[in-house]
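WARN no homologs supplied; continuing
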Amino acid sequence: MEKVFVVYDSKYGNTKLAAENILEGIREVEGIETAIGYVKDVDIRKVADFDTIVLGAPNHMGRPSQAMKKFVNRLAELDLKSKNVAVFGTYAGKIRTVDRAVKKLGKMVEKKLSNLNLVSPGLSIRVNGIRGPIVEGELSKCVDFGKKLVGQLRSQ
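OK structure emitted
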């Protein structure tokens, strides 16, 4: 059974909501064990035992949050049994296919966790202003991302 752990950082609740909706999409596919956790509360050793880690962070000044950067650095110090990693994030501003903070998180993951396969293009979810809420129609992208992620994992 494939095991997927979604780890998120969230200041105003938007990235948490995105993470929950990604998890919903993953859970729509049978045979997947899932877990979710706030980046500052997660026992990093438990994450290391999952096949796939999904990392989500809000855009802070064009970069992923500090808490998520620290988490990735801590993951890099472990002997991960994980095979795959995916990234997502929330951002305010102009409509983008992939926000620059998500791109930077993806590049950081490729560099620090080079033994893992970065699956799926990163997902960027737009929010209204810094505090949100999430723009209407964006949450369905999260559910689709979760389903698509499982499809990619199963086709490997």
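The radius of gyration is 14 Å.
OK
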